[in-house]
Amino acid sequence: EMDDLDHYNNAHAVFYKELQAYRELLENTNVINWGQIFQIQGLQDGICEISRMVALSKEVDVKTSSFQMVIHSDPDTLPDVRLQMDPKLTLAYLDISHAKLLNKAWSRGGNPRCQKYLANLICCFPSVCVLDDNKNPLSWSLTDQFATMIHGYTLPEHRRKGYSRLVATTLAKKLHSCGFPAQGNVLETNMPSIALLKSMNAQFLPCSFFRVIHTPFHFLAKSH
């Protein structure tokens, strides 16, 4: 069932050579449902400006964010992480029962739609986590519908123990073994995550990753 307020699932990835092609996609086709809240992701310059221009004519608000794009193009360059963990801890996959904790911890989450979205990702795509002796995750990462590694997180009381590096490296290797690319994005100001990615020999691409969330004016009050 379609939820017009759910920008997590109402998501599109765009790729184009000519900026005009993106503008025509938004203006002249029925590909995009402008009656709902949705997001568009892309790597090309100009995506934010064109989205704002077209959205204004359709009475739609636009919020943009940009990140550094990173890839792990060669699985052989990923480090061999050997971590002496407490015997009570286990390296495992996320379970749907963990979605509530992930939703609470995610800067993009904290709402029922996000929790449902995360539960669906856990069910459908690869994930990795470290579980404590009560089977609760204390460090994790998962994959979204665009085969992007997202929501890498370690609970504050368990940081600086190597869990994030173990989880991220294991997930990247898992994605490669399944035939997926190992890719992600990171805020330019998130120095701990950037240091982690560098320790994994990640390749930082010269382009930025853009996320553009479009919200029809009449939905603005409902989306908060």
From TrEMBL:
Keywords: Acyltransferase, Transferase. One of its GO terms (molecular function) is glycine N-acyltransferase activity. Residues 2-126 form the Glycine N-acyltransferase N-terminal domain. GO terms for cellular component: mitochondrion. InterPro entries: Acyl_CoA_acyltransferase, Glycine_N-acyltransferase, Glycine_N-acyltransferase_C, Glycine_N-acyltransferase_N. The keyword Transferase applies. Its EC number is 2.3.1.-. Residues 128-210 form the Glycine N-acyltransferase C-terminal domain. Belongs to the glycine N-acyltransferase family. This is Glycine N-acyltransferase-like protein.
